[in-house]
Amino acid sequence: MTGVSELNDRTEILAAQRNDDSFSTLWEELEWRGLIHVSTDAEALSNLLEGEPFAYYCGFDPTASSLHLGHLVQLLLMRRIQLRGHRPLGLVGGSTGLIGDPRPTAERVLNSRETVAEWVDSLGRQVSRYLSFEGENAARLVNNLDWTAPLSAIDFLREIGKHFRVGTMIKKDIVAKRLNSDEGISYTEFSYQILQGLDFLELYRQYDCKLQSGGSDQWGNLTSGTELIRKVEGASAHAIGTPLITNADGTKFGKSEGNAIWLNPEMCSPYTFYQFWLNQADADVIDRLKVFTFLSRAEIEDYARQVEAEPFKRAAQKRLALEVTTLVHGAAAAQGAIDASEALFGRGDLAALDESSLRGAVSELAQATGAVGTPVAQLLVDAELVKSLGEARRAIAQGGVYVNNVAVESEDRVLESGDLLHGGIAVLRRGKKTLAGVVAE
């Protein structure tokens, strides 16, 4: 999409979002959606959310060039609170990103200042896609480097460090685990919770920020800010920790072989993104609809009945994939992913797909490379759709091989220039579901 059409698409998506008025309070809806794992005083928070507009924030550290699904949980929570009339602050950590919060097993690799600055810009643009920057409760982007860079080490220790007790700091779960590991923990990562506490204090002072949200695994860092505000300002502030999203079997959601599902389409294509949601298990899909879509309680309960009665139709998964892909990549990209998914399996025209959708789909398949004139039988072997040329020829003779969904009728069929869509891509299929991409040499 062009910049203008993408902006219009994003504006339409934001305008269509609503909280569900079947709930008596926003807090009740957040609990029903499974977004509250731990919090400060729940009653006080519920009253705060129903009261006068206030500022709240969530921080996003630039430890990579893109946000991922864990961040999307936070962005959608922020958006739900904004829809209630409150003012979101999206903090991108130009200073904390230079350190990184402690990992469970080992020290982070420290990235260069130039790399972190580039990632700050990238994440800031991504955060801006999910919040409204218009109206009386317009969102604002902030960077914690603005208040930490001018602070000397002595001032930091005198004004901030003195309020933290080492005994309390080492009891934080992540710190305790690292202290008991072979790797230990450096002072750099140990100090992270102080920096996050400073962020909350500064936002409280500058914007009267009263609430911070984050993953429940960040609870120690979240409460470092509420405690610092209480000690320094004598004021009350709040925190919400969202649950870590896991699948029904207990595995961490959004991870596959250690790789996150990124929100950047260059790192995870809209087709791959769509397929990820489409393949959610029946046991998980309703929880995903609650967290990652703005569908109403009535709509989601209806999908729950459909999952129970007709799971083979996968209606809930299809709606989930459509909603979240549209949210992240836009309506055109979502439709392109649907069209590509249909076309790959012979239910649509591969030639009609735009290049981005086709390349995204083919990138997920087994691959073979070949020049014009390469026998299709050889490509089947190279793509590992068959084990030998003999097996390839038999499959062709039996009518079970297709190039771009057109049956291969001759064992001598070769790759032709007309097979190469968008100048360089073809799709091989054996049977109904076994696919491979061919990329021209």
UniProtKB/TrEMBL annotation:
<dbReference type="InterPro" id="IPR002307">
    <property type="entry name" value="Tyr-tRNA-ligase"/>
</dbReference>
<dbReference type="InterPro" id="IPR036986">
    <property type="entry name" value="S4_RNA-bd_sf"/>
</dbReference>
<dbReference type="InterPro" id="IPR024088">
    <property type="entry name" value="Tyr-tRNA-ligase_bac-type"/>
</dbReference>
<keyword id="KW-0694">RNA-binding</keyword>
<protein>
    <recommendedName>
        <fullName>Tyrosine--tRNA ligase</fullName>
        <ecNumber>6.1.1.1</ecNumber>
    </recommendedName>
</protein>
<comment type="function">
    <text>Catalyzes the attachment of tyrosine to tRNA(Tyr) in a two-step reaction: tyrosine is first activated by ATP to form Tyr-AMP and then transferred to the acceptor end of tRNA(Tyr).</text>
</comment>
<dbReference type="GO" id="GO:0006437">
    <property type="term" value="P:tyrosyl-tRNA aminoacylation"/>
</dbReference>
<dbReference type="InterPro" id="IPR054608">
    <property type="entry name" value="SYY-like_C"/>
</dbReference>
<dbReference type="GO" id="GO:0005524">
    <property type="term" value="F:ATP binding"/>
</dbReference>
<dbReference type="InterPro" id="IPR002305">
    <property type="entry name" value="aa-tRNA-synth_Ic"/>
</dbReference>
<keyword id="KW-0067">ATP-binding</keyword>
<comment type="similarity">
    <text>Belongs to the class-I aminoacyl-tRNA synthetase family. TyrS type 1 subfamily.</text>
</comment>
<keyword id="KW-0547">Nucleotide-binding</keyword>
<feature type="binding site">
    <location>
        <position position="57"/>
    </location>
    <ligand>
        <name>L-tyrosine</name>
    </ligand>
</feature>
<comment type="subunit">
    <text>Homodimer.</text>
</comment>
<feature type="domain" description="RNA-binding S4">
    <location>
        <begin position="374"/>
        <end position="436"/>
    </location>
</feature>
<feature type="short sequence motif" description="'HIGH' region">
    <location>
        <begin position="62"/>
        <end position="71"/>
    </location>
</feature>
<dbReference type="InterPro" id="IPR014729">
    <property type="entry name" value="Rossmann-like_a/b/a_fold"/>
</dbReference>
<dbReference type="GO" id="GO:0042803">
    <property type="term" value="F:protein homodimerization activity"/>
</dbReference>
<dbReference type="GO" id="GO:0004831">
    <property type="term" value="F:tyrosine-tRNA ligase activity"/>
</dbReference>
<dbReference type="InterPro" id="IPR002942">
    <property type="entry name" value="S4_RNA-bd"/>
</dbReference>
<dbReference type="GO" id="GO:0005829">
    <property type="term" value="C:cytosol"/>
</dbReference>
<feature type="short sequence motif" description="'KMSKS' region">
    <location>
        <begin position="252"/>
        <end position="256"/>
    </location>
</feature>
<keyword id="KW-0963">Cytoplasm</keyword>
<dbReference type="GO" id="GO:0003723">
    <property type="term" value="F:RNA binding"/>
</dbReference>
<feature type="binding site">
    <location>
        <position position="255"/>
    </location>
    <ligand>
        <name>ATP</name>
    </ligand>
</feature>
<keyword id="KW-0436">Ligase</keyword>
<dbReference type="Pfam" id="PF22421">
    <property type="entry name" value="SYY_C-terminal"/>
</dbReference>
<dbReference type="Pfam" id="PF00579">
    <property type="entry name" value="tRNA-synt_1b"/>
</dbReference>
<keyword id="KW-0030">Aminoacyl-tRNA synthetase</keyword>
<feature type="binding site">
    <location>
        <position position="196"/>
    </location>
    <ligand>
        <name>L-tyrosine</name>
    </ligand>
</feature>
<feature type="binding site">
    <location>
        <position position="192"/>
    </location>
    <ligand>
        <name>L-tyrosine</name>
    </ligand>
</feature>
<keyword id="KW-0648">Protein biosynthesis</keyword>
<dbReference type="InterPro" id="IPR024107">
    <property type="entry name" value="Tyr-tRNA-ligase_bac_1"/>
</dbReference>
